[in-house]
Amino acid sequence: MAIGNSTLQSCFQEQLRLKAQVRLLEYRVKQQQVKIVQLLQEKEIQYSDTGDENSVIDLGEKRQYADCAEIYNDGHKRSGFYKMKPLQSPSEFLAYCDMSEGGGWTVFQRRSDGSQKFDRVWADYEQGFGNFVSTNGEYWLGNKNLHYLTNQGNYTLRIDLSDFEGERRFAQYKSFRVTDEESSYQLSCGEYSGTAGDSLTGGFHPEVKWWADHRGMKFSTRDRDNDNYEGNCAEEETAGWWFNRCHSSNLNGVYYKGPYTAKTDNGIVWYTWHGWWYSLKSVVMKGQSLRPVLSPAAGTVHATRGKVQGKGSPDGQTSLSGFSNSQQGQEQYLSGPKT
Length: 339
Ligand SMILES: [Ca+2]
Known about the structure:
alpha+beta; 9 helices
């Protein structure tokens, strides 16, 4: 069958047309790729900006709030720094309100990047120090404020931890309270639940309680030794904490970034999760009050809180069994009670 000249001609034209279209599409793809790279860069810049962004939320002077739970129940559901004044407190102060996980959590300690120095004296720990502006700013709210906060109601303590492998764990304690200056800001807390193991009351092993239980301990700093050890825990561990002899948790320790070697176990330590020789990536210590609240939101808060605690306990058991792990068992001999 003979192919006509005109058919061949139209085929060539069609081919040219398609080739031109391919070139045009290739050009457009390249343009889009350039745009994607630009957008990704912009997004990255925006993302890094939010970390330093000023997150102080001013609600004006109309009403005074005793803690973050009261702010949350008044309808403010955005996390950030708010002004508050606990019932007995002579003055107002700023604290970060974490409005997630049931809302109304008053954050009193945060570690996130090692930007703040935590090896400080008694007066600093009493007054509070650090970054009270940025979302991830490191700070200690101050023992004085912690006392006023926890003495106005029944507080639940929650400690959120993360490591450099991207894992997150938590420990929660009922009835959290810190006494006044006269009794050196003694710590008390009740029943544990969570996934990180109980490194605050030495509940992971009965034989360690005599030296690793932080309950009932007074606060110690390098210039105010209130521990049960002949030496000075705060000086050796370079932190302020409710040291016993000396610790199974040291959340104000040095920001080492993961596994570390040092003269003493002075990293950011939560023994039941990573042992004494791993310094955690981030820590948030926060309290949520169980005071009867008048706003209608109160019911929701209580319901959610119940769920969180109920879910935590079985996982806590897993962490306890982790103690029999031989590596951790060895570490007990590496550190252990100070003699
Ligand atoms: Ca001592």
